[in-house]
Each structure stands twice: as C-alpha cells, then as structure tokens.
Design goal:
33% of the residues lie in helices and 25% in strands. The protein is α/β, with parallel strands linked by helices.
Length: 340
C-alpha cells in the first residue's frame, strides 16, 4: 500500500501559493456562495468552545467541517481559535487557524496548512462580494472601523469590488496604527487615518466594522439613509439601525440565529421586533443576481460571522497551486498501518 502523503504548508508556503491574490479570493468566494445556493456544499454550523465558558471568555476554539461537491469535491475542516491574551503579546496573532483537507472517498487527509491568512482574506472577500451587489451606486467613500488584520484585507477587498471608491476613512483608537496601515496602501487609494468614529462614519457610503467590541460602537444617527453597513462581528451596530434597514443580508442565517441574544439580528427576531422575512442570505443574492436597491434612500446591512466552506474552497486553491509549484513539505501519516 502506498504511504498516505500529506502536504504541509506553513504560512510562508501559503503566501507563495497565492493567498494574497484578492481578486482570486473574491472569485472563489462568489463561487462558494453560488454552490451553496445550488446545494452542492454541506456546511454545518460551526461549534465553539469558550474558555472560560461564559460571556467574558478570554479565548475560544471553533471547529468548521465542510464538504464541497460539484467540480471541487473536497472535504475539510478549519480549527479556528482566538485569544484576547494574544492582543497583549507582541508578535502573536489574535487568531490562529489550521486547515486540514481530505479526500471525500478514501477519507485520507492530503493537506495541512496554516489557515490564518486564508481566514483574513476570505473574511473580507465575503464583505467584498456583498459590497459588489449591495453598495450604493457610484459609492465613493468608505469608513472602515478597525486597523487590524481584517482592516487590511477589507481595504483590499473593497478596492477590488467597488471600483468607484476613492476615499477610505480608517478609524482606530490607535491613530498611529491606522496611519501605519494607511501607509501600506500609499499611491493606491486615498486613506485618511482617524480616531473619531462619528466623523468617519458621517456621510460614508459604506461603513464596515472589524473590531472585538462587545457592545454597539456605531450610533444609528451617524449612518446616512442609503448606506451599506457591513458588520463583521455580532455587536457593533445599534438595534435601531437593524430595525430601519430595508434589508439585512447575512452569510449564514442559521449560524447567526443560533447566537440568540449574542447577536443583534437574532436578538431582535427573538424579541419579535424584527421579521425574518427581512433577512436574506448572500447566496441568494449572488446566485439570483438580486437587485435589492430600488431607490436612493435604502439602508442595507450585511452581517457576517464566517462560513467554513470559504476556508475550504480557498485552501483547496492554495493546495493546487502548491502542488503545481512544488511548494511545501511532504509528510507521511504512517509507514504501515496496524490494527486494521
């Protein structure tokens, strides 16, 4: 029997295999949502282990198993984790993710790779795809809240998805951090570092929040009537914003709904203040090319909490590139299996 060969890809290998190609990640992201719409992907809700097991957790682990059928046919799982302690530790990422890919027929694993950058890229790519369909026509100004890892990839995604965009207001409590990130994109787009969220959000066509906040930070009164609001966490907008939105588009409603009072949309549904009829999944927007804007004064929200199939789709792309270009380290799961 041939020894089962596993390709191990460290983060540098994942970069060499093309993870920072945002245009490609956007393409794969839209393909994933279209396949979800066709029923070609089995994407169970993620399971989470909080440490400690309470609202004031300091770290957590999530398992995200997926099978992608169709022309891809790959199984995989992402083991995702985040630590508040890492925010205080220089040189340590806040989130650390690992992805494993397997053959759906033999169930043999064939790749293990760093998933941290894949997570960052596909997270913002889902927002980019949403903006492609949901942003106001001829959007020019975006306010991005949070100059961290997702702030960086959100700039990349919106630059690709919203070609009319010409100004990004990058808001962070740490103004020096916002300036440093803005400097990375010098000459590509006008980025204004700011530490005043009200000033940044006022009159912005697109507002995207990428923070670790556990309570609302964007006041409803700061948001203009026809904006697209992108919430990448669970808590960052006020109830009033969700209630006055024309439509709320989400990446996975079953997953968000399971959060109950921990997420603004599901909380309002549970309280019978918000009808589920107002909520649409992004897969239905992309597959049916829905036009949700019928006038110039319609507020739309996109809410995302992460879909594991995006990770596996992107990881499979990285794996294929690595094989073509002889990237990575080959490992054996065993020399000869016992106890058969």
């Amino acid at each position: 029997m041939r020894k089962p060969e596993i390709l191990f890809l460290k983060q540098e290998d994942v970069i060499a295999a093309g993870v920072k190609n945002m245009d490609k990640i956007l393409e794969l992201t839209e393909k994933t949502f279209n396949m979800l719409s066709k029923g070609e992907i089995n994407n169970p809700s993620k399971t989470m282990t909080l440490i400690p097991n309470c609202e004031d957790w300091t770290s957590y682990f999530m398992s995200m198993p997926v099978h992608i059928g169709g022309d891809i046919n790959v199984a995989g799982i992402k083991w995702a984790a985040e630590s508040m302690e890492n925010l205080k530790t220089p040189g340590m990422p806040y989130g650390i993710d690992v992805i494993l890919l397997s053959d759906p027929t033999t169930v043999m694993p064939f790749a293990i790779m760093d998933g941290t950058l894949i997570t960052a890229m596909r997270t913002s790519a889902s927002a980019g795809v949403a903006a492609k369909y949901l942003a106001p026509k001829n959007s020019e100004v975006a306010c991005l809240v949070g100059a961290g890892v997702i702030g960086r990839t959100m700039i990349m995604a919106l630059m690709s998805s919203v070609p009319t965009l010409n100004e990004i207001r990058l808001v962070d409590l740490d103004l020096a951090k916002a300036q440093a990130l803005a400097d990375e994109f010098e000459g590509q787009i006008k980025i204004i570092p700011m530490d005043n969220l009200k000033s940044g959000a006022s009159d912005a066509d697109i507002i995207a929040t990428m923070t670790t906040a556990r309570s609302p930070i964007v006041k409803d009164s700061w948001i203009k009537n026809n904006a697209l609001v992108i919430q990448m966490s669970l808590y960052e907008i006020e109830d009033e914003t969700a209630l006055r939105a024309k439509k709320i588009v989400v990446d996975n409603w079953a997953q968000l709904k399971s959060k109950g009072t921990h997420a603004v949309f599901s909380k309002l549904v549970d309280e019978n203040k918000l009808s589920e009829e107002k909520i649409i999944e992004l897969k239905d927007v992309t597959s049916e090319k829905l036009q949700l804007r019928n006038s110039d004064d319609e507020l739309i929200i996109f809410g995302s909490h992460g879909v594991g199939s995006l990770d596996i789709m992107c990881a499979n792309y990285i794996y294929q590139n690595a094989i073509k270009n002889d990237i990575g380290t080959k490992l054996n799961l065993w020399d000869k299996p016992i106890w058969l």
